[in-house]
Design brief:
The protein is mainly α. It has one domain. The protein contains four helices and no strands. Helix 1 packs across helix 4 and helix 2 runs antiparallel to helix 3. The chain is elongated, with a radius of gyration of 13 Å.
Length: 75
Amino acid sequence: MEPLSPQFRQALKEDHPDLTDTDIDRYEELVAARFQIDPDRDPERLSEIDRQRAELLRTRMPRYNEVRQRMSRSG
């Protein structure tokens, strides 16, 4: 997984004023961890990572998808 660009990180912070670099780093860690897990061998761990990622998005970055769409349109 490619790290989030500095521009995307900044856009996330602009849309979520209380968001920290630590929050964004944690999101990236969870996404990266998800790709390292074999879903057939460890479905429980995969579910836990997905739960944590969804919770982080819900509580700290509820407009994540909006920011992603806006950034993809702008170039």
